[in-house]
Amino acid sequence: MRLSKFADELPVPPVLQPRWKDPFHTYYEVNMTEFKQSLHRELNDTTVWGFEGSYPGPTIEATSGERVFIQWINRLPDKHLLPVDRTVHGAHGNVPEVRTVVHVHGASVEWESDGYPEAWFTRGFQQTGPFFRKPIYRYDNTDRACTLWYHDHALGITRLNVYAGLAGFYLIRDHRERRLNLPSGKYEIPLMIQDKTFKEDGSLYYPEQPEKPVPGLETSIVPEFFGNTILVNGKVWPYLKVEPRKYRFRLLNASNARFYRLKLDSGQLFYQIGTDGGFMPHPIGVREITLAPAERADVIIDFANLAGKKITMTNDAPAPFPAGDPPDEHTGTVMQFRVSLPLSGVDTSVIPAVLLPLPKINEGSAVKIRYLTLNDRQDPYGREWMLLDNKPWDAPVTETPKLGSTEIWCLINLTGDTHPIHLHLIDFQILDRRDFDAERFKKEGVIRYTGPPIPPEPQERGWKDTVRANPNQVTRIIMRFGPYTGLYVWHCHILEHEDYEMMRPYLVIR
Ligand SMILES: [Cu+2]
């Protein structure tokens, strides 16, 4: 089934209104439900899961320093929309099939509100996971202005819950951002990019078996899932009518496994102003932007002098990344901008020359350097089994940074894929990447570098919470742990890897 491109207008998720708000706190209730939604005009309505009846979920906007409380409420059916693999960690026979727990990706929060994968809960909090602590989460929003997103994080079924639709934007704003005079209001639009595959009847397709089916297993995890259709904000290949002026877009890759290398077919530049964790020191003009799952880029596109033009945003990232197949004409197309609206007023917004200073974390301040491998093994069924530091999820906690201390983590990738590695709680800076002899490391356990350190790409020179760890490279990141102690996780953000079982707990101690 081939759907027409640019048939539907881009939806913009609504901004969520609080249940109440006073000078000291803001309270939201957010229901997760199953419903039908039109994802393309030629497709029957699709059964999806969403927040407050919306996929993507409504955008939550907080001000830096605002104390926000959210009750995430599971009102989903008992039966999952998609095939659950009971052999995957956390999804074994005795646990309820549908479990949810919501994590605000990139936020700095107390551990009890962070959405720990085993803090899941079922409909009406009837059953809860062993690490469930409270039904109402607290977010202090101590971060600077940035583009965050919320999504499900339940152990062993995150890939299915997010694919079903459980994701939305969470934006933090601050006074410095307001002073920058960026495009705002209807000229500031979040873009959540995902890939999906549909069945003929319009329902969501998710594979039950990998390429080589596993005898004796009805449903089996796939190494990675790649859809054949690209959606933005829950619409297949949408178009957006714009005025000939500047717009600000929050780009987010919310796909399970697909990377994007985005370009505009007009050849024009994206002016990138922010990374995962907020503004960069200066805007940079770039022709392409690479986003691994969970990475964000805050960009300005200037459509001035382009009245009447149609501009397509394209993707040429191989899947799997970086050594897989290039996208076809379908997965190589993301959305279209139509410069068809009249200018409604003089565009007084700017691309500021200076944004926000980036205090560099000094390498010399690190009290600990951890060497952590990314491994590719086989499970007893012969399936791909991805691990961090050769340890499964259930192994005892080994990463225990001290509150307030600075550490360098060296991610030693021994696999053939790039893995987007995400740490909860903190933002880090990328120090460098360096080629090394992976085969020799596997035999002797020593790092022999085969090239000089490569500085992070210009588009990565800011606060990050997700880093691409490339094959045959050691990627070094530096961060200071705080302001909370407690139990968090670090993991690969390819959701099939995260579920099986490229995720580890880590504990910030006093
Ligand atoms: Cu991975």
From TrEMBL:
Coiled coil: none
Residue span(s) of domain Plastocyanin-like: 45-175, 385-508
Entry GO MF terms: copper ion binding; oxidoreductase activity
CDD domains: CuRO_1_BOD_CotA_like (cd13844), CuRO_2_CotA_like (cd13868), CuRO_3_CotA_like (cd13891)
InterPro entries: Cu-oxidase-like_N, Cu-oxidase_C, Cu-oxidase_fam, Cupredoxin
Superkingdom of the organism of origin: Bacteria
Family: Belongs to the multicopper oxidase family.
Name of this chain's protein: Putative multicopper oxidase
Natural source organism: Caldibacillus debilis GB1
